[in-house]
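Issue: ligand-bound run for flavin-adenine dinucleotide - logging full I/O for the record.

Environment: standard queue, default settings, no custom constraints.

Inputs:
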Amino acid sequence: MQQKIPTVIISGAGLGGLTFYHALIKNKDKKEFNVKIFERESGPQDRWQGYHIGINNKGARSLINCIPSSVALDLPKAMPNPIPDVEYHGFSLTDHTGNLLLRPPSKQVKDVYEVAKVSTGFSAIITYRDRLRDILLENVPLQWGKKCIGYEETEEGVWVFFEDGSKEFCDILVGADGIHSPVRKQKMPELQIFYYGITQVLADVAVPKSILNRLIKFTGKGTFQETIGLNGDTTFVIFRLIPIKEQEQNEPRYRVTLAFGYPTKLDNDEQNPVKVDDNDPASVIEHVKRMIRKLRSECELTDIMLELWDLVPKTTPDPKEYPFKTYNPVQRRQLQDVNPLAVDVWTSSRVTLLGDAAHAMSPILGLGANDAILDADKLSQALLNYSPENYISCIKEYENEMLKRTSADVLKSRSIALRQSSPVGYFGSIFRNAIMKTVNFLMNFFDTNLFLRD
Ligand SMILES: Cc1cc2nc3c(=O)[nH]c(=O)nc-3n(C[C@H](O)[C@H](O)[C@H](O)COP(=O)(O)OP(=O)(O)OC[C@H]3O[C@@H](n4cnc5c(N)ncnc54)[C@H](O)[C@@H]3O)c2cc1C
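Outputs:
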């Protein structure tokens, strides 16, 4: 007798959920599933999906494994090939004056296929996250406006419930619904979000070439740059040196992701209460600039940071005028993560998780999306052995590997973020900088990235 085709429901169409969708369809000849994917957003333009992320060699390898060639052909739209001698795709860290502390080795490559081939060491391409999502959405019969609010697991399968009152039945439910995943909250209610005590403000900005050139003169042409101050304050500047396509624009502009982070307790000073209106971008930008002036010494790098934050739109821009697809309202946000191994027991069942839903992490090491894509690859491989009798062992095989790999990444990212947010003061910074420079020398001498070793 012919077996019925099992149904897999994916809740959440971010990078992880969409990659998983493609992987199941791509493997159809080996194991066929009826795949349904649901997303709470009302459509592809609903919400800001911007900022730049680094897709590394492991993420690139899994991405290429999972997507069909028709989607792979479009990858250069999201991750244009690196520009030799102009861009350096890798991470660099300087102090608040632009003094280089760390630049771990990163293999420079010509395209995403070469990144994927790097098997020892580290390589990455800075990628437009929103465009990667757009590419992954191509030809996916996504059901928009379907916010999952819970599920009920039975012997026969899983009922998935949506906010609009509808429900769907499946054999396997995959919660790929991000850090606030309702699927995780129901499956693992004891797995709590960890708050770092760090506030972060994020923005995507169109930056004139002259300002970026000044930054690069100081900190180099690394496309993922961080600076650390003396007071637990950090900045991120992530960019590609590819001008935005614009009409009647005299000076080329580049798309840049900015982030500024500082200890949250600085906002809770009872003596000097901070007045910020998170619903008013102008108020948040003023606050960021005030904090930069307060926490950083006067120097050229501080001036550049202030100028960069001045470029962030102070009111919600007209989408037709704005150079990016959607706009992110600048707000103070709390840095948080989820360590999947913070709970003792993870019982495998018909309901599983992937991506940020299982293991949201600090962006400091650039691992979150890469891990989500790796999850999609590993889970789709595990499900090749699916049968009505052994589905639990497929899910268990996936979860055993996923939990170990991603918990280590969450904790590594957490420990670095917390260390960087501890104030060191002037003398402490001399000691800190000396250690970092020594580590940098060793990493480059032995051609190894100590932060991202397995
Ligand atoms: C500034 C910054 C820089 C970063 N840099 C990097 C980097 O360099 N490299 C890297 O690998 N990662 C990076 N990350 C992390 C990365 O962006 C995330 O880890 C990644 O996007 C997670 O993908 P996901 O699909 O698991 O979750 P998400 O992208 O959050 O997608 C979840 C989807 O589920 C939907 N959803 C939510 N709730 C529901 C519901 N109830 N029902 C239905 N749908 C729902 C959401 O609308 C969303 O579309 C960075 C993050 C930040 C903030």
